[in-house]
Batch of 3 targets.
Target 1
Amino acid sequence: MRTLILVPSLIAVPVLALAAIEPTAAPIAVMQPVALAAQPDPAAQPAAAAMTLDPVHSMALFRIQHLEAGQFWGRFNGVEGSVSWPLDDASAPMIKAIAKVERVDTGSEKLDGNLKGPNFFNAKEFPEIAFTTTAGTRVGERHWTLTGDLSLHGVTKPVTVDCVVTGVGKGPTGKKVGFECQLTIKRSEFGMTWGIEKPPKALGDEVKLVIGLEADETKAE
């Protein structure tokens, strides 16, 4: 009888011990919120600075082959206009540049007068040469390919311009920015044909333009 009583006791003790242990809940995985990458706020983008071209330090050089020999250079002094640019590479510089034909300068008064006449720029009928940026693509640090409209000799055509920001400094009204822009055109496409066929090969058709610009930040009124 002692054995019969002991066995149930031995069984009951571990059962009671197990019953006394509270069940442990299995850990529940909690999904933590995932932080989303901040989206650019258009309002937080740097505003483009309004700048005015400094005509004392802005000019347009042109180069053309003369009599199938040398490359002859001339320039337009006092280029005027404006630039809109955020002073960094956030967006392309939007340039409006105007050269007055009366300011052509070759170092020869006689040749300057000829260039202003009807065989060439025809200053009386077409007094200005203008370029206006329409779009731009960044190709490197402070280096842009600009597309825009060139108006010359009464003709407006789209052109592509290689534009480098040469520096950002400080001027009397605030920031000062420099640009160097280059492009090549065919003057015959703008109705300037003298010297190509008549007289034959007196001047080349291709004209290289190198435009050096300085712009000053415009003071707020």
Note: The domain at 48-217 is CATH 2.40.128.110 (Lipocalin).
Target 2
Amino acid sequence: MLSLRAHTANFITLLNALFGFLGCVAMIQDRFDLALIALIAAAIADFLDGFIARILKVESAFGNFMDSMADVISFGFFPSLWWYFLLSESLSVLWAAGLASLLFVSALLRLVRFSVYPSKSIHFEGLPTPAMALFVVLITQTELFDQMAYFTPVWFKRAAVFLTLLFSGWMVSKIPAISLKFKDYTFKANILRYLVMLSAIVGFVLLREELVLVLLPTYTLGSLLIKR
């Protein structure tokens, strides 16, 4: 019985990895719409496996390690490959591959560190890979991204380098990042979480696909306000 309960969470973790893999296959087939659906499915599975493990009280070192390995695929390799394909439309293969590689290596280091040295803080230590994946995908869906690539290629390259360095450096650093996992729902204890959620809602209502232009600065500035 205990084994069945434990494998329930682990099976969902495997779904996370599988969706990430299928998303990469979809990108190779130039089906970025399906890849995006796969990423959303992977994110849902990533949330559910930990939630179910806590509910069933079957958290284990094996499950935590498997979760990190799944995240390497879904929130490490997937967004890096996405970043490569979208950048390679405007930058040289060398530049696109180099920036995507830096993103992937940083995500891998972040996940290994998190697996070996789990943080006990209520917030993350370094930018979590799911947040990085979300920001990468959202940024590439904006009109600003397309317009910069077409009208100002020099500034597009600079922006791509800046964003890659921002996400990569933050992932491997110990700079805190806001966690959206609630232990209670009091305003005082969760003011930064509510701020991020509000910015996402306001950004979507006002800007739609451009919501990352509000969400990313809010998340970054809110994270810098976390008391260490």
Note: The mean pLDDT is 91.
Target 3
Amino acid sequence: MSDKDQKPQDQDLEQGAVDQQTAEPPEGADQQAEETGQGDPVSALQAELETTRAKAEENWNEFLRARAELENMRRRMERDVAQARRYGVEKLATELLSVRDSLEMGLSAAREANADVAKLTEGTELTLKMLNQAMDKFDIREVDPLGEKFNPDEHEAMAMQPSAEHAPNTVIHVVQKGYRLSDRLLRPAMVVVSRQSEGDQSGEGQGKA
């Protein structure tokens, strides 16, 4: 057999080997593809979905815990505020009990036939002192602006009177004292305010003329 007759056969064998290598994947290729996740996209998506679900459930549980903590904090704050109000009034009431007792004893003494005015006056002054001490404990201060400049934020003008002795808008009489709780005004002072007298007004008019 000549060389020319052998070459086509050799070429056919070589081509067959190449086709077999192309058609059949190498041994272990399927296992490697499965390990890398490229062989089964559905499994990869399912695994990713499970991971996402687990993360979402974890976040939801954290949200529920945070909401429960906020609700508990709100309830504690409401309870603390209610207790502070109740106990604050209780302390003030305890201070006022002694003042009431003193007033009742003074009134009983005043109703006696031979009531001593001097002792009644002394008892009333003592009662007022007790009341002032109780108010000081709770930072309740009186507003007594006699001789001060009129302040509409703290004073309520009941009337205006001409006065040559005071500058205009000066408090010349306190009808009723005001009171302040710390920085909060409980009641404005009712006052009479001075204004320029008619004589001063005419004098100014003549001077200007």
Note: The mean pLDDT is 83.
